[in-house]
Inverse folding.
């Protein structure tokens, strides 16, 4: 990280931990609950958001001086919508089954609060290079949480990881299933994703007491 | 120098150290404490929390005992039924020796007591861990929860599933909110809801209610025991149990909720000792009857015919809803939980009525499982503070109005 200054490093590292968009700012919860039942979907979603945010932040940052402030939200929406359609088309071309699985949620990246939030809060006021780092950082912070949730939900809910039967075969009763283990169907339901998010927040705040709000 | 003295010495020795709560809990669990509870929703009571909890446990013991015998009875009865000799094993009358015998007790003790041990062991362990980490005293709240849990699960639920659910229920249902007295949801029902959504095959169907029915499924000695609600949900016109079976409890179901007469005894005991709120119990039953009447009316008016999948449960006579399923158990032991119920008297009427009303509604319309008491109570747990808020605000408004009239 020597190429980046201290300040720029923070742009990437902060959203990964103490300024995480999901666990600290509590944004983007909707997609975190909806598509994390499988690890693969979580990873694809994380990559899609990484692309949209990285490129989108740069584009908005480049245009920041020519966007009239009254219509800036519309301009931001057009930029993010364009990028999301690119992602959607790429997925349909190269990973059709996965794109069906993710269905509307790729399209709904447009409404992901994290993206509009970073456009508004950062890209409109900073140069393209720093905006790029900020976009990448926040997308990574979002993706890391998504992958953690996806990991636990798929492992405990389906007994698989990326489709591999890591715990054995539930029908032929091999591996862990031979001693009576069963998959936890609750893990596949969205409420459990919310509880997993809550548990991550709990762990994070008990490790770093500075994050606990006064009230 | 008795045990109490030794415990007291240990307690003093560890005072201020990390393990202090553990010794303190052991001491107060075995002997009456010198102090009463400092925090939580119980501050209005003069009794200390432990006595309140113990009273509920005493009220639950008859149900547990009956559940132990019923586990064996259902097992042997199902075998006899498969062999065609059911008639001679049938228990008639509450004191039937076909029911109260050592064979039934042996099976029941073998299956029910492990549930109790796992429930208490795991639950209290979690409580101890949290008490040590947070540095407060072990809370008594789990004493009742630990007794309720074995009574509201199917007999053959694998013990590790119960353990997982208990950890979930105690941590997510209670500790994250700040422990006993601060929880929004009833922990015992949170545990049951977790089991229901996580392992549905072990929580519903016609195999889970009778001991060994799951293992024997598909074999030559297969047995089963569908609950009455399950039979009605499949539009059965006749059921193999008569009203006295339902009332006395000689029917398949969760471990401790089948015997209506013992639940009524427990309810009277709770009302008499002023631990359970008669308003909640009464209004829950009224709510259930009203919903039952509405469904009966729908059937009588001919709005649905017997091809509808809801016809079986809708046409159950309204009063019969009280003696099948677990509405009575829920009303007496679950809805009255003082922490999660409404606190105001008017609020209790509304809270109870809606529990009964929604229970029967879910019971009839639930596509997965013909029972809804636990879901209804959890739902109303969430709304209880809101109900209280509006009751209090209504009262404030009324008094303000009176004030205005006077000053005008």
């Amino acid at each position: 990280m020597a190429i980046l200054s201290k300040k720029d490093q923070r742009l990437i590292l902060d959203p990964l931990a103490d300024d995480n968009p999901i666990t600290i700012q509590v944004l983007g919860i909707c997609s975190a609950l909806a598509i994390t039942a499988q690890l693969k979907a979580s990873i694809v979603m994380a990559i899609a958001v990484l692309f949209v945010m990285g490129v989108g932040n740069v584009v908005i940052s480049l245009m920041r001086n020519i966007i009239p402030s009254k219509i800036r939200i519309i301009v931001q929406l057009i930029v993010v919508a364009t990028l999301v359609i690119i992602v959607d088309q790429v997925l349909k071309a190269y990973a059709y089954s996965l794109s069906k699985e993710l269905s509307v949620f790729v399209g709904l990246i447009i409404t992901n609060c994290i993206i509009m939030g970073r456009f508004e809060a950062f890209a409109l006021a900073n140069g393209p290079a720093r905006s790029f780092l900020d976009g990448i950082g926040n997308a990574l912070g979002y993706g890391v949480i998504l992958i953690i949730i996806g990991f636990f939900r798929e492992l405990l809910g389906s007994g698989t990881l990326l489709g591999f039967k890591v715990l054995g075969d539930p029908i032929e009763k091999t591996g862990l299933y031979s001693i009576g283990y069963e998959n936890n169907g609750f893990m596949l339901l969205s409420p459990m994703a919310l509880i997993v998010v809550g548990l991550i927040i709990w762990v994070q705040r008990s490790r770093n007491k500075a994050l606990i709000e006064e009230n | 120098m008795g045990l109490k003295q030794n415990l007291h010495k240990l307690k003093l020795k560890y005072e201020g150290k990390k393990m202090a709560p553990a010794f303190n809990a052991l001491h107060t669990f075995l002997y009456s404490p010198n102090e009463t509870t400092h925090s939580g929703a119980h501050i209005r009571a003069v009794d200390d929390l432990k006595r309140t909890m113990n009273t509920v446990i005493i009220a639950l013991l008859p149900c547990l005992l009956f559940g132990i015998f019923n586990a064996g009875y259902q097992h042997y009865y199902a075998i006899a039924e498969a062999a065609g000799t059911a008639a001679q094993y049938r228990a008639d009358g509450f004191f039937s020796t076909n029911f109260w015998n050592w064979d039934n007790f042996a099976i029941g003790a073998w299956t029910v007591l492990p549930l109790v041990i796992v429930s208490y062991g795991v639950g209290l362990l979690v409580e101890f861990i949290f008490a040590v980490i947070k540095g407060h005293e072990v809370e008594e709240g789990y004493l009742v929860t630990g007794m309720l849990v074995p009574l509201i699960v199917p007999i053959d639920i694998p013990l590790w599933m119960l353990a997982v659910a208990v950890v979930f229920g105690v941590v997510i249902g209670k500790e994250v909110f700040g422990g006993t007295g601060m929880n929004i949801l009833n922990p015992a029902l949170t545990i049951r809801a977790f089991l229901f959504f996580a392992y549905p095959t072990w929580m519903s169907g016609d195999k889970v209610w009778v001991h060994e029915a799951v293992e024997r499924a598909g074999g030559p000695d297969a047995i089963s025991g569908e609950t009455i609600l399950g039979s009605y949900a499949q539009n059965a016109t006749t059921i193999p149990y008569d009203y006295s079976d339902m009332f006395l409890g000689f029917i398949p179901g969760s471990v401790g909720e089948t015997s209506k007469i013992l639940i009524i005894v427990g309810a009277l005991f709770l009302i008499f000792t002023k631990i359970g709120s008669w308003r909640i119990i009464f209004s829950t039953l009224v709510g259930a009857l009203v919903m039952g009447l509405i469904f009966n009316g729908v059937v009588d008016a001919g709005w649905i015919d017997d091809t509808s999948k809801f016809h079986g449960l809708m046409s159950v006579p309204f009063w019969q809803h009280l003696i099948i399923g677990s509405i009575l158990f829920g009303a007496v032991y679950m809805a009255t939980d003082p922490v999660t119920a409404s606190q105001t008297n008017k609020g209790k009427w509304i809270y109870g009525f809606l529990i009964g009303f929604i229970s029967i509604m879910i019971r009839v319309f639930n596509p997965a499982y013909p029972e809804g008491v636990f879901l209804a109570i959890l739902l109303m747990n969430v709304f209880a503070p809101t109900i209280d808020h509006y009751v209090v605000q209504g009262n404030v408004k009324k008094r303000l109005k009176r004030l205005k009239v006077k000053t005008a």
Q: What stands out?
A: DSSP finds 18 helices and no strands in chain B. Chain B has a mean pLDDT of 84.
